[in-house]
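The freezer alarm interrupted the setup, so I double-checked each line after restarting. Inputs confirmed:
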Amino acid sequence: DGGITQSPKYLFRKEGQNVTLSCEQNLNHDAMYWYRQDPGQGLRLIYYSQIVNDFQKGDIAEGYSVSREKKESFPLTVTSAQKNPTAFYLCASSNGPGTGAYEQYFGPGTRLTVT
Amino acid sequence: DQQVKQNSPSLSVQEGRISILNCDYTNSMFDYFLWYKKYPAEGPTFLISISSIKDKNEDGRFTVFLNKSAKHLSLHIVPSQPGDSAVYFCAASVAQGGSEKLVFGKGTKLTVNP
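Predicted 3D structure, all chains:
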């Protein structure tokens, strides 16, 4: 069964701690994305990666970092520098540019609460 | 500056009637438009899409209309069902630096009343 998994579903951290959110896909997609959703807001792009070992900043990358060492995995680290880390985080993947397929497929999300 | 706008935060319709969700955009470089459906605490699910070279795409109860001159698209759901109650996001795709990015609206919460 192909899909995107994100773990954990809920995550709690103390302020000042870094935390890493997991995202794995077995869809054989080249491109992967991280979004953040806040109440009453749309999805805002944090980072994206079109191929392994390459990634670009999205619209709100400050306070976040990523890595793309494997095609299947795109973990997101929320650092202590992120001023408002409490949010719902969504990972997505797609076939990537030039394939004619624009749809991104989303994981179930991780709700991060920082106190 | 919001490039994709969904000006109605919420919409309520009766079961069996038509639901019309609207979306406006400002960037003429958008080449593909998509609608996603999202339930609380879940990831969005792709619903339907349309290329910028077309003006209509239909899939079952769902039809998307694109008016390029007005920079406006709409999603029609006929007939509406209670299970359609969710938040609907409009998204637009733009090529940027060799990558394809999606820009999302803020969403419209649809409630279908039995």
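Quick read of the result. The longest strand of chain A covers residues 43-51.
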